[in-house]
Amino acid sequence: MPVHEIAEPALRLGPDSLVWKFHGDVRNLLGFQRLAGTENCIEQLAQGVEDHSVIFGDFLGRARRSAPPIMQTVYSASPHDWGRRVRDFHGSIKGTISDGSRYHALNPELFYWAHATFVDQVLYITDTFIRRLSHEEKVQIFEESKLWYQLYGVSARNQPQTYEEFQAYWERMLGRFVRTRTIWYATGYLRKGIPGPGWLPRPLWRIVAAPIDAVLRTVLIGTLPQEMREVCELPWNERSERRFQRFAAVMRAANPLFNMLPVRVLYTPWAARAWERAGVDPRRIHNGKPRR
């Protein structure tokens, strides 16, 4: 597979970047289903997850093991080491898909798609739940994502070169979405409801879980591209969209209150440690200007 060593070990993102500001914000958790879901609507990637991970037996455990190395690639003091670690972890992930063709996790097309879903998460979740981004800020985040991708040491031949090209690329990939066993399993709780504890009678759990399921369906299905909703048979209509947009507007309006929280509450542990190491308070920077 086309990989390359990182030529400049000092290559890194930093506190002046918008990726640092927003990627580690805990509100990104609202986009976990969009992130994991869009990744696994592409058959080759989903097949790799099915063949080489424990998603069906330890779904949450897999998420806990996958997220920290990617966070460290952005926020650690040695991002190039973590980037290579992420890359090398994927070296043995290969196999075949339904039509008999082969896949490899380090194929540049496939590896870049996985990265693109993280770029999309920063762009979409920030603009939806934190604050509206200007076009210039979206361009900046995309440009920073190119540096972020370099840290993995995988060929960038499939990487769009401009933000506009990235938007077109994203739309093309949405058109390739298919129902995979991985994504059908991972979205089952949105169709059937959250499974209850074994000791609680099922009728009682249905009563207790009804409002929780309603909120999760509104917020999480609301973040998904329509192509993914259709693939996963997740119902959505104009009324659902209005509820979601009201929730998103409330979240954006509450951004000044979120910025009053301690950094270790507002950010994931990896990001909070990085801000402390840099001696910068992220709550005071990159807050944008009010729009007229």
Written account of the structure:
With about 290 residues, the protein is mainly alpha-helical. It has 16 helices and two strands. The protein has helices spanning about 20-25, 30-40, 45-50, 60-75, 80-90, 110-130, 135-150, 165-175, 180-185, 190, 200-225, 225-230, 240-255, 255-260, 265, 270-280, and strands at about 95, 100-105. The chain has a two-stranded antiparallel sheet with strand order 1-2. Strand 1 (about 95) and strand 2 (about 100-105) form a beta hairpin. The protein is globular and about 55 Å long.
In a nutshell, what does this entry contain?
It contains 16 helices and two strands. With 292 residues, the chain is mainly alpha-helical.
SSE topology sketch:
Elements: H1 18-23, H2 32-39, H3 43-52, H4 59-75, H5 79-89, E1 94-96, E2 102-104, H6 108-130, H7 135-150, H8 163-174, H9 181-186, H10 188-192, H11 202-223, H12 226-232, H13 238-253, H14 255-258, H15 263-266, H16 269-278
Antiparallel strand pairs: 1-2
Helix pairs in contact: 2-6, 4-5, 4-16, 6-7, 11-13
Please write the string of helix (H) and strand (E) elements.
HHHHHEEHHHHHHHHHHH
Q: How are the strands ordered across the major sheet?
A: 1-2
**Largest sheet, if any?**
2 strands, antiparallel
Shape field: globular
| Overall helicity | 55-70%
Average pLDDT number: 90
- SS field, number of helical segments: 16
Which regions are unreliable across 5 or more consecutive residues at pLDDT < 50? Answer: none
Main structural class: mainly alpha
How many individual β-strands? Answer: 2
End-to-end distance = 50 Å
Report strand %.
under 5%
Structural Rg: 19 Å
